Model the fold of this input.
Amino acid sequence: MEQQLPMAVQSFLYAGSIAILVLPAILIVLLLQLRSQAERVVRAIEELKAEVSPLARETRVMVEGLRELSGRVQGQWAEVERIVDTARSWSERANHLVQEVGSMVEPPLLAASRNVRTLRNGFGAFVRALFERHQDDGQQKARAS
Done:
């Protein structure tokens, strides 16, 4: 039994020494693969950056243009609001003026309209009476003859 133990120890030492030699080789291979993958990722990121950078600059220019356009639109909107307010005040003044003029002019116009209607009705009655009388005179002369 004494010899088996050193043999087991020797085999463990032998396996350990092989593992010490093989493990770094495997680690080196894995690290080289990891490095090549990292280089590919870095290249892809650099290509993406090269494509995105001009797009970002164009976007900044576009955003600046939109800000400027927005400022102009806000200024014009404020001007439109002032115009609408002015038109509203003019409209209110015109409505007030029309109400005042209407209250002064409407009663005489209504009275004149009533008078004209009355005169028209009276004139129509007069003309009808005149024609009826004239026809009655013509019928009496025709009977007398």
User: Anything to note?
Assistant: The two ends are 182 Å apart (CA to CA). Helices lie at 4-144. The chain has a mean pLDDT of 87. The longest helix spans residues 4-144.
